[in-house]
Amino acid sequence: MNDLAPLLTPEGRALLDEVRGTAPADELAVATRLRRGHPAELVSAALGQARLRQRAVAKFGAEDAERMFFTPNGVEQSTRASVAAYRAERLRALGVTSVADLCCGIGGDAIALARAGIRVLAVDRDPLTAAAARANADALGLAGLIDVREADVTEVDTASYDAVFVDPARRGGRGRIFDPEAYSPPLSWAVRAALKAPHAALKVAPGIPHEAVPAEAEAEWISDGGDVKEAVLWFGTAPGAVRATLLPGPRSLLGRGLPDPEVRSVGRYLYEPDGAVIRAHLVAEAAEELDGGLIDPTIAYVTADALHATPYATAYEITDQLPFNVKKLKALLREREVGILTVKKRGSAVEPEELRRKALPKPQGRHSVTVFLTRVAGAPTMLLGRPVGLT
After folding, report:
1. Cα–Cα dist 55/366, whole Å
2. Strands 302-304 and 293-294, how do they pair?
3. Three-state SS for 139?
4. Please, which residues have CB within 8 angstroms of residue 58's CB and are 6 or more apart in sequence?
5. In the chain, beta strands by DSSP E
6. How is residue 198 annotated by DSSP?
7. Higher-pLDDT residue of 155, 183
8. Is 297 left (phi over 0), alpha (psi -120 to 50) or beta?
9. How far is CA 15 from CA 19, 50, 128, in A?
10. What is residue 172's predicted lDDT score, i.e. its pLDDT?
């Protein structure tokens, strides 16, 4: 699919309505039937778009995804709607009324910005991607706030905008790109563009090294539903600040420059910090809230004797602490009639699925257990427990 135009015609839109929700197993039969009355290329394009819309539901929700237009890369690389909405609200709260969205992709962030009442210049150099962004602005009734331009972002004048948002491409022919200077455009260019504007937000990979964060930036790591989605470098906010933000919420944990927590023996409770907290290097801040310590100086598990409610970590009540030994674990699970085994690991080379297969080859019990493969004071250890629900 190299041209969206045929899908935007009345015939194309009618086909999209007809193939909506087509299951993969039914595609051949549906295509054969529709090709009797429509061009084969248009039928293939409609079915391909239907598949992309189905994939996009997880990011955009069914109501929007079924009206939007996607490219394969657009579905893969676009921002989850909840994250884009959070970022747009932060910009709106800063007093931003206009944003130059550079490397806009299929328009996910532009849509969120427009819904926050912000005027957007959305720029992408790929013709098909820009066409998808334009079609999406129109499909969602936001064309009056989103001006889509097909251009090289490095040649766009952003001087008249309150803020700049840059989402550089972080994938190449060989997959993910980890070096920020290998982004397209490079992080150094994006930082220069950010420093020209009153406010700016640069979307980067959550694995960005902390030493690569410019001194002028606030660094924020964002998770949604427990999954780390991205990091954002903010300009015009709080230079040098570090925060972890959890969605839904939002709940934000701010860094205070605390030293690493002390290492202590495993207490009654084990806390698994949210991935955004770990990526932001804010485990010490979370541990202070929990009055806890680390089980090992190199492992981001916090332990405490008391149960504390916190949005920044998941609590588990620990029932057993064993040296790593599969046979002992298997016997213990059988004795306790365990039929559901959740395996988590941090600081262990053992694969969870491999341990699950060996320790619980025939799940038959009625109880469930979580086992942590980790290190305690440097020694390979298995911690057994159960999640604790907190309100």
Report:
1. 35
2. antiparallel
3. helix
4. none
5. 98-102, 119-124, 146-150, 163-166, 171-172, 175-176, 199-204, 218-224, 227-235, 242-247, 251-254, 269-273, 293-294, 302-304, 313-323, 338-345, 367-376, 379-387
6. S
7. 155
8. alpha
9. 6, 10, 20
10. 62
b/e burial code for range 99-121 (CB count within 10 A of at least 16 → b): bbbbbbbbbbbbbbbbbbebbbb
Q: pLDDT digit string (tens) for 180-221?
A: 888 888 899 999 999 999 999 999 999 999 999 999 999 999
**Which of 192, 234, 223, 235 has the alpha carbon at shortest distance from 314?**
223
Q: How far apart are CA 190 and CA 141, in angstroms?
A: 30
* Amino acid type, 167: D
At 375 the pLDDT is 95
Closest of 264, 262, 266, 283 to residue 382, by C-alpha: 266
What's the average model confidence in pLDDT over 230-238?
A: 97
Tokens in use for 373? 């493969």
Is residue 1 over pLDDT 70?
no
Strands 293-294 and 242-247: unpaired
pLDDT for position 391? 42
* Average pLDDT value for residue range 268-279: 97
Question: Phi, psi (5° rounding) for residue 299?
Answer: -120, 130
* Mean pLDDT value across the chain: 93
User: If DSSP codes are grouped into helix, strand and coil, which group holds residue 326?
Assistant: helix
How far out from the chain centre does Cα 119 lie? 25
- At 173 the pLDDT is 59
For the stretch 294-330, pLDDT in tens is: 999 999 999 999 999 999 999 999 999 999 999 999 9
- Which pLDDT does position 71 carry in this prediction? 92
Pair type for strands 199-204 and 163-166: parallel
Instruction: Specify which residues 316 forms β-bridges with.
Output: 270, 387
Tokens of 322: 């064993």
Question: Rounded CA gap, 171 and 252, in Å?
Answer: 29
Residues found in the chain: 391
The residue with tokens 């007093």 is 95
Question: By the 8 A CB rule, do 257 and 92 touch?
Answer: no
- Please answer whether residues 299 and 375 qualify as being in contact, where contact means their C-beta atoms are separated by less than 8 angstroms: yes
CA end-to-end distance (rounded Å), the chain? 49
